[in-house]
Specification:
Length: 147
């Protein structure tokens, strides 16, 4: 497989500072708050060469995932209404649920596989995952694929 076509999903806290600054420069340019690359990199404090090296390779997940299907897995405590709460979060974030698979709970923990379609009006995908992860009784929330 060609190494240049691989994608990795990495938590923000694991990224080097330079990559985060490249994202900030792109946000300044895309929002119109800065008109030129020179203005934006000066404000953020990175070199032009660093910006050009990474500008097309790092972006917030929500910018490139619209129209894609995200499948994630979580361990969920076996409590009445908890799955319903998770599905409500997905609906509140304007994502479309494509499939749900729940295993039979073992030791009061069920494995859930959930596939959602990210629509143009879907909230920031990181908000979706944060809100699901913050729901009480959710363990080991992980993205399996984004296609």
């Amino acid at each position: 497989m060609d190494n240049e076509s691989k994608f990795f999903m990495v938590k923000k806290k694991a990224l080097p500072e330079i990559l985060l600054k490249v994202v900030e420069v792109n946000q300044l340019l895309n929002s119109g708050r800065k008109k030129t690359i020179c203005e934006a990199i000066d404000e953020i404090g990175i070199s032009r060469s660093s910006y050009y090296k990474y500008k097309d390779d790092v972006f917030p997940i929500h910018e490139k995932i619209q129209g894609k299907t995200i499948t994630f897995v979580m361990e969920m405590e076996d409590r009445p209404g908890l799955l319903s709460n998770v599905l409500k979060v997905v609906a509140d974030c304007n994502a479309n649920i494509l499939s749900i698979h729940q295993s039979i709970p073992v030791n009061h923990i069920a494995l859930i596989t959930l596939s959602v379609l990210v629509l143009p009006n879907t909230n920031d995908v990181t908000e979706l995952f944060d809100r699901i992860g913050e729901a009480g009784g959710i363990h080991n929330l992980k993205i399996v694929s984004a296609e």
